Amino acid sequence: MNSNALTAMERAAGHQQRFVASFEKYFAELAGELDGLRLGRFPPRCLEALAELSLRGGKRIRVALLYEAAGLVTEGEVPGLLEAALSCELLHSHALILDDIIDDSPSRRGGLSTYYACREDVPENPQAALGLAMMAGDLAGFLALRVLLHADLPADRKQAMLDVQLGVTTDTVIGQILDLERDVTPSADEGLLESVCEYKTTRYTILAPLRLGLLAAGEDVAEHEESLRRYASLAGISGQMRDDYLDLFGDPDVTGKPVGADLRAGRLTYLVRELLAATDADEHHTVEAALGDPDCTPQTVDRIRDIAYRHEVHHRLRSAIDRYAEAASAEAASWRRHWRAEAVAFFEQLPTWNTRRTR
């Protein structure tokens, strides 16, 4: 890893470490703010389950993007950034909980998924467990807007930031719907894959934090919208491809989820499509038989990984990841004309770091 990428990683880690304490404080204070949490057993357990997932870890890349986006405009303190960061991470928790319910995923971030934690809470009533997990996800989504609404900001600036989060909330749901369509459509083309990536990754992982940080710093986002979208799209596809790569070639002790989770969930990812296109008839059958089989064994996943290595799928996917990352870096370099060079450098370096991350 080159020194520039390491610099971006260190800066992202610094934002992450500072944010964690604030996130812990937020959940501790929230428990005393919501009167309904003192009623019954399920309301406090719902918040507890959400906090457990939210505080367990994650890359917090949205937090880093948010603070660095404000840094494009100014190196001074920017009001509203913490609330925006909390909002981004709560919305991410909402998306993760929904994903794990849909995929029937038992683990997330090295522990039980919220859905499976709820199943342990009420093992005698699977329907109640499903409902409790859904409510934890809904709670996260609504809190994401609540925390931003309570930010101490000028009304016009707060409204603009809320508009961003309201839009991205809708986008993530549409992305999840498109994701379902992709996974039940064997003939799904590249366009559908890119639409899923656009709505599930690009808009809420990259573009929304960029917009929020710039808006908080008082910048006119509309003036730069086209370039921001290009950067977010290129970096988003590169990042999604890296996620797909790690699902088969990553270390589960680092990623926090078992190898082959996408295969077992039946996801027609960039990697799976590349794999299906490269294999002969027998190998193709092996991959198709595993796709969508929740009981697919580790031995079968190992065999599929060996098939991928034999056809150099890992090399082709890494090359594509690098191409998109390089294009994103070039787009960020064009920002030097109107924004602070130090912060621009972060956005230039970030896609390269993303291509080498291990989780």
UniProtKB/TrEMBL annotation:
Keywords: Isoprene biosynthesis, Magnesium, Metal-binding, Transferase
Database matches in Gene3D superfamilies: Farnesyl Diphosphate Synthase (1.10.600.10)
Family statement drawn from the similarity comment of this UniProt entry: Belongs to the FPP/GGPP synthase family.
CDD domains assigned to the protein according to its UniProt record, in alphabetical order: Trans_IPPS_HT
InterPro entries named among the record's database cross-references: Isoprenoid_synthase_dom_sf, Polyprenyl_synt, Polyprenyl_synt_CS
Database matches in PROSITE patterns: POLYPRENYL_SYNTHASE_1
A Pfam family per the record: polyprenyl_synt
The protein, known as: Polyprenyl synthetase family protein
Database matches in SUPFAM superfamilies: Terpenoid synthases
Cofactor requirement: Mg(2+)
Origin: domain of life: Bacteria
Keyword Transferase recorded: yes
